[in-house]
Design a protein that fits this description.
single chain, 4-stranded antiparallel β-sheet, 4 helices, globular
């Protein structure tokens, strides 16, 4: 009788496992090849150019320091650790190209303000708002300095009667508190 029960149990087990194949379950399904949802909320975008120049990957520059290693560098102990807060996120070639296109749009808007002779911080803010950049983009403006995260890269620079600059860079690991991700921390960790 135990052989019959074993055979019956095996038959039931085989039937249960084979009948589940090919069934669909209720609820959302992923199609093959679909990208998984990101585990973070992407930054909102602003100052995006309609066309972005194609980025040409650069070849790494050869080392010119004679092969120095960390052990023989003349620096205080833990210097790198103590200054890690100043680290910027690296930008891939395509992100840098998008950032440069955004910087060109920002420069065009600021050139309009320059033609008007208006160098106030409020005018810088208005120029960035014209491009869709607001508080949610980490806009920081003060004393002719501006910075904004376009959703892809940071654009920071100066806007005064004497100069109009813009630099594309990655967000800081530990930005200046209360300023957004694109302002270098003046303090430390």
């Amino acid at each position: 009788m135990s052989i019959r029960r074993s055979a019956a149990a095996t038959a039931v087990l085989v039937a249960l496992t084979t009948t589940a194949c090919g069934t669909q379950r209720d609820g959302p399904t992923r199609t093959q090849g679909a990208a998984p949802a990101p585990s973070f909320t992407p930054r909102p975008t602003c100052a995006q150019a309609a066309e972005v120049p194609v980025a040409v990957p650069s070849s790494p520059a050869p080392s010119v320091d004679g092969g120095r290693t960390r052990e023989n560098v003349d620096a205080p102990p833990n210097y790198a650790d103590n200054h890690a807060y100043r680290t910027q996120a690296p930008l891939a070639a395509d992100s840098r190209a998008q950032g440069e296109a955004s910087a060109a749009l920002i420069r065009t808007e600021l050139e309009k303000a320059r033609a008007e002779g208006d160098f106030r911080d409020e005018r810088i803010a208005a120029a960035l708002r014209n491009l869709g950049c607001g508080k949610e983009h980490g806009v920081h403006i003060g004393y002719g300095f501006y910075s904004v995260h376009t959703g892809v890269a940071c654009v920071s620079g100066r806007f005064t009667a004497e100069e109009l600059t813009g630099e594309v860079h990655g967000a800081y690991a530990e930005p200046q508190p209360g300023t957004g991700p694109c302002v270098e921390n003046r303090g430390g960790h």
